[in-house]
Sequence to fold (156 residues):
Amino acid sequence: MTQMWTYGYFGRHTSNQFDWVGYIITGIVLVITIILLLNYLRHRNNARNRDLLILSLLVAALSVTIQISDLQYNYQLTNSNNNNSLVMMEFMRHVAKDKKVTASQVAANQTSLGAGLVVKVASDYYQVTFNNDNAITSYTLTKTKLLNRKIQLIKE
Fold:
């Protein structure tokens, strides 16, 4: 059985699905810090309030720094050619545009660009030939037939 990965598969594997957890934790830490700041301003003589505020400020600073680091990492992934999912999605969009179909009708037998890549466009199959340089800048699609017609489409 031949496995083929769909455009939707690559779309779901490009970003971290738990980013929202970090945002919620950072938000909660910031709200607690604001509450502790207000409490400290009300009772300036209490050393416990000051200590809790300092601790909360450190945790908030750490949390915000982690979020900024994650955002920078995701930005670098988006703009680098090393992320196979994004490269495959871009390639599949080009193939879909060339063949005048939607990207959801395109599937590939590999998860990265390279020799031996076969794409399924609607009900047709094409062998992909890339140019010889290291930066893949062009490709040729040649209609082909599969010996094994049993295909498992991987959507998730």
